[in-house]
């Protein structure tokens, strides 16, 4: 049995797409278990760059099964746009390489409208969501009024559910928020057309994942977002609406915790965040700007500039704890090349006390002062490294300190966006 999880250890955009693609070479199945098309995962192979949102990052191999699990919120419009985009890049999607859970929740047009309206109403307290309808869709799931993929496959059930939902949503949109009324027929027609295209891909994916693991196939679970965007352990309410930590794999793919062997936390050599919310090591200065430009830190899904700051080991420690990480994959070590000095936050000072966890209250977190250690930098040649022995001593020191403080080994180092710019330090 070999099953492993790749998840974001920070605020998303750590390089999960790249690492999933790299590790997928040895996998038979790649599974998305939460989130939706709020994710933007970049994979670079040769001269080509692929931007994936909903479709798992194993799709670039011709012989892998990719699964969109029940924990994902699925926007059929976005899915088909992504399929067409990939087809344009020479990647054919068929029921042989993509399977979609019959239990996945559907993102409906009113979810997207409500996402926008709610952000407006929050005013200065806006979360800075991706506007893809993620929060409102998960709200309906938990409130038990959501519409699942299996419901769409039964036209009469879908019709009833859409009518019930739309009546309530139209009241909220028009009467509470003075927005525009949504037409039933238009949505119904649009989704029934999706149904025909979706049908061949739909199966009970929990059964497939279980059987694959039992028959000794290798299964890779690809997380979206990151630990600090988790609905429970993130910087609430500035989070996404799903379980981005390892626990989310069980509920979002339909397997038990005893079936997961390894959990790899993907972490950038520095920290970024897109959207609002606290960020203790943020650099609102020329170094922050330098990292953003050098690392091309602009969102894949929304194009927004990402906020940049030093590596925060309190965050990595939190990720190691709440997801039981077996190792880290450190990415973008090459981006820091050229800096004379590099800082790393090893703990926080809160009201005179040293702490190594993230306080639940954002007011407390705002008072946390990062405690830094300073490291000497390294040069651009790092992007050509092929083995650990190619690393300059200063990179080794940096990696050693990360392992020491987080009590978690670094198993992979990424020194560039391409598949072959990856150095495996220990077998996964
Ligand atoms: P994800 O959401 O975690 O998959 O990450 P994104 O794709 O949103 O952002 C990561 C960005 O960094 C993408 O543009 C990747 O191509 C790029 N990337 C990944 N790993 C590395 C690396 O080691 N070095 C450099 N320079 N770029 C990387
Ligand atoms: P990947 O998988 C970075 C952020 C948004 C916002 C918050 C809530 O590429 O790492 P949502 O639309 O989910 O309700 O937005 O979460 N966010 C991400 N930030 N990477 C992502 O995905 C993100 N997905 C959502 O910016 O702050
Ligand atoms: Mg991303």
UniProtKB/TrEMBL annotation:
Binds 1 Mg(2+) ion per subunit. It holds the Pfam family Adenylsucc_synt. GO terms for molecular function: adenylosuccinate synthase activity; GTP binding; magnesium ion binding. It is found in: Cytoplasm. One of its GO terms (biological process) is 'de novo' AMP biosynthetic process. It is an enzyme of class 6 (ligase). HAMAP family: Adenylosucc_synth (MF_00011). This is Adenylosuccinate synthetase.
